[in-house]
Amino acid sequence: MSAEEKPDLVKVIRTPIRLEYTYSAGKSASRFLRAMKEGRLIGQRCPVDGRVYFPSRGSCPQHGVPTDGEPVELADKGTLVTFSIVRIPAETVPLEIPFVTVQVLLDGADTILMHVLSGCGLDEVHMGMRVRAVWKPKEEWEESVANILYFEPLDEPDADYDSYKEHI
Amino acid sequence: MREVAVVGFTQSPAKRRETVLNDTEIVIPMIDELKKSKNLKNEDMDFVCSGSCDYLAGAPFAFVMGLDAVGAWPPVCESHVEMDGAWAFYEAWVKIQMGYAEVALVYGFGKPSMGDLPLTLALQLDPYTQAPLWPDAVSVAALQARLCLEGGVLTERDMAEAARRDRRNAETNPYAQIKGDFSPEQILAEPYVASPLRRHDCSPISDGASAILLVAGERAKEYCERPAWVTGIEHICEPLDLNVRDLTRSRSTEMAAERAGVGRAAIDVAELAAPFSHQEILVERALGLGAGTRVNPSGGAMAGNPMMAAGLSRIGEAARRIWDGSAGRAVAHATSGPCLQQNLVCVLEGS
C-alpha cells in the first residue's frame, strides 16, 4: 500500500457512558431529612462517649458502633467556629458576593455544620460569635438542609474559646 | 507460611431490593455483630480490608463511607479492593503472612439494586470494542453457555440440575434469596431469558454484606474453638478479551485449585460463587471435586448473590462447616469479571 492509500489511523473514539441510579439516603439520613421538613434539627448520640453527630448518621465513625438510640433534638442556634469570605460567585449560594461561609457548632452538637452567614458587615464576622438559623417560610420547607437560608448574628456575648477550640 | 484461620463470620440476608438502608447501613450491623460475638475491640484489629464497587454505588470513593461501620479510632490500618470481599480476604492473608498483622477484619458489601446491574457489569468489558456495545451481563454469560452446549461440554439438563441442587440446598439457609424444590423438568419448561439461559440458570440480583475475622497462629483459638485454617489460597486472572480465552473451561480456577492444593486430599464441602448454572458446572469441574463433596450446602451464589460479598460469604459458609465439625476440609470459590475471568480458590481445614 502506498503512503497515499494508507487509511487514517483511528486516534480518538467516543464511548459515552450513562448509568442511572435510584439513590436511597438510608435510614438515618432519611430521618434527618424528614425532621428538616418539620423544621427540626436532629442528631444522633455515640453510645461510647456521648458525642452528638449532626446530621444524624447510622454509626459513630470514630468508634464504629451503631448510633441506634433516640435521636437528639438540637437548637437552631450555635457558635461560629471558623469562617471564610468568598469573593467569587457560587451557583449554589443565593447570596451576593462577597458572602461569608461559616462552620457552625450548633448548641448540643459535637460536629460542625457548613453554611453561610448574612446580616452583618464583613468586618464584624469573628470566631466565637453566636449565630442563629434564618429559615425559609414554613410553607416552602422540604426534606432539605436548604430550608435554612443562612445564619445571622445573635445578640449574645461571644462563646468561650474553650467551648469550640477542638472543632477548629 | 504463617498459620491463619477464619474465626468469625457474619452475613446479611440477600435481598433483591433493600429499600430502607443505604449501603453503609447494611454493613454496620454485620461488623457490630462480629465485634460483639468475638468480644473484639477496635484496638485488637491490626488490619481492616474491604471489597466493594463504586460503579454499584454510582459515586466515586463510595467505599470510604463503609469505614464508618468499622470506626477510625485508634488510627486504623486499612485497605480496599474494588472487587469482591474474597480478594480483600486475600490481601489480609498476605498482610498477615508478611508479619504486619495478626488480627484482620475483612468485609464486602454491595447494593446493586440502586442501578441496572446487567448494564453496569458491561463496563467490565474491553472499553474500546465491547463495552460500547453495552452487552448486558446475562447475554454475555449466555454466549458462554451456548459455546459450552455446542462444544458438548454440558447440556441444558446439567444446568437445570445444578440450579435445582442450589435452590434446594438453600431451603435451610435463612440468608438465601431464592430457595425451593424446582424439578429439572419444571426449569426446562421455562422460557429463555437470554438463550440458552433461563431464569433459573441465573443468580438473583442481591443487596447485602458480609464480614469475616482472620486471626494468625495460636491466637486463633482464643476466638474460636475449632478454627478453620487457611491451608491454601490462590487467585488467577485470565485475559480481558473474551475471544482469546477458552470459555468452555475455567483455566484460572484449575490453576488456582492446583496451587491452593485442593486435590491433596478429599474435600467435604465446596462453596461456589459462580453466578450462572453453566459457570457453576465449569468451576466444579475445574476444582476436580469428587462424588464425596457436598457442593453449595448454602445454595451458593445461585441462591443469593450480594455483589462484592458473595465470594467472601462462600469462605464464611465453608468455614462455618469446619467450626461445627460437619466438614474436615472445605474449599471456597469466588469469581470476578465476565465469564469467570478471574477466580479465587481457598482451602480451609480443621486441625
> Approximately how much helix is present in the residues of chain A?
under 10%
Could you give a short account of the major beta sheet of chain A?
A: 5 strands, antiparallel
Ranges of chain B where pLDDT stays below 50 over 5 or more residues in a row are none
Number of helices of chain A: 1
User: At the third CATH level, what is the topology name of one domain in chain B?
Assistant: Peroxisomal Thiolase, Chain A, domain 1
SSE arrangement of chain A, N to C: HEEEEEEEEEE
The tally of strands of chain B reads 12
Strand content of chain B: 15-25%
Major sheet of chain A: order of its strands? Answer: 8-7-6-9-10
The major β-sheet of chain B equals: 10 strands, mixed
Radius of gyration of chain B over alpha carbons? 19 Å
Mean pLDDT of chain B: 96
Write a short abstract of this structure.
The complex is a heterodimer of chains A (168) and B (351). Chain A has one helix and ten strands; from the N terminus they run αββββββββββ.
Summarize the SSE layout with pairings:
The complex is a heterodimer of chains A (168) and B (351).
Chain A: H1 27-37, E1 41-45, E2 52-53, E3 59-60, E4 65-66, E5 72-74, E6 77-86, E7 99-106, E8 113-117, E9 130-135, E10 148-153
Antiparallel strand pairs in A: 1-2, 1-5, 3-4, 6-7, 6-9, 7-8, 9-10
Chain B: E1 4-11, H1 23-37, E2 47-51, H2 54-57, E3 78-81, H3 85-97, E4 103-110, H4 117-120, H5 137-150, H6 156-169, H7 184-188, E5 192-194, E6 197-198, E7 208-216, H8 220-223, E8 228-237, H9 251-260, E9 269-271, H10 277-287, E10 294-295, H11 300-303, H12 310-323, E11 329-336, E12 342-349
Parallel strand pairs in B: 2-3, 2-4, 9-10, 9-11
Antiparallel strand pairs in B: 1-7, 1-8, 4-7, 5-6, 8-12, 11-12
